Each structure stands twice: as C-alpha cells, then as structure tokens.
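Comment thread on ticket #2218

A.B. wrote:
> Attaching the input chain for the structure job we discussed in standup.
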Amino acid sequence: MVVKVYISGISGNKEVKKRQQRVLMILDSKNIGYTTLDITEPGKESDKEYMQQNSKAKDSKYPLPPQIFNDDDYCGDYDEFDLANENDELEKFLRIPVQNGHLNGTTSSREGSTEGDQQVPQSHEELGRIDDQLPEESTLDKFGVAVEDDYKMEEDTKPAEEGDGEQEESGREEEKEEELDEKENDSDELEGEE
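C.D. wrote:
> Ran it. Output below, let me know if you need it in another format.
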C-alpha cells in the first residue's frame, strides 16, 4: 500500500501551495512513505483525470490539490487530512496498519516510548527530591534542568557609590545651562553688529 498525494506544482493559489507543503511536511515528520503525483506536469493528464474523477469537490467544480489516496482508495482532501492529524487518527485516515503503536517502524507522534526517555518532574515535591540528589554545586533552574554554580549569570560586582547618579545629573544640567548662555551671547552679538 502506497500513500499518494496529488499536487499541483504550478498552482497560482497560495492557499493550495501552503496546504500541499503542510501535508508533505506532516507525512515527512511522521516518517510515512508517500508518492507525489504532480498533475500539472506534461504527460500526467491521466493522473489529473483520475484525481478529478475519484476525489470529492467541496467548494469548486473540480477537487483541488492536495488530494490523498492510498493506492486507488480515496482517503480525503486537505481538510480531512488536517482534522485526522489533529485528532491523532492519521493512520486510520490513510488506512495504514498500525502495530503496537508503531507506524512504519517509528512510534506514533503522541504515544510515548519508555526506552531511554527522561522523566519530567510533575510536581514541586518531585523537583525538590531531584534537587536533593544533585551535588551541592548544582541547582535546578525553573525548567528542572541542573545548572552548576559556575554557569550562573554573574551580576555586576561594581559597588554603587551613593550620589553618583545625582552628581552626573547635576553636571549635565550645568552643561546645558552653559550651552544656552553661549547661544544667547552669540545672538546678542549678532544683533549688536546689525
């Protein structure tokens, strides 16, 4: 059984292009084998005709790509594919046999495997127990990841002197006043020359 995705390689419709890319991306991410059939390529008129005759049109006269088949069995269009993916029923939608939660030798996307998985702490008490087991120079960050003291962010070690900010601020004000005085003097001199 081969999953076939009928696509249009030269579609001017951006929505069709996005939907085709999403279907192929999801199939790739789940390691589901498939074949694409570009109905716009020269010599593929029979594929186009087959897709149009065996698919269901929703909002248009002819069904728009992507259309998904399993061999010659029609599975559905993009909307049905996307709904099946969201409901974690993609294998059922594609009519692919699933054995022990595995699809084509890989684990289904939402079914966890216990081989080599790290457990994520579920409560603050569990985080505390894990933290107690760490060496003294390590602590847990807010995500439950061990962080050694050497890697903690260093804070500014320069002690703040009192009044520094006030002195800088008053110095700036004095500079501004001097500049204004100079400008006034320059304008007075220009007026006097006229």
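A.B. wrote:
> Thanks. Noting for the ticket: The CA atoms of residues 8 and 38 lie 5 Å apart.
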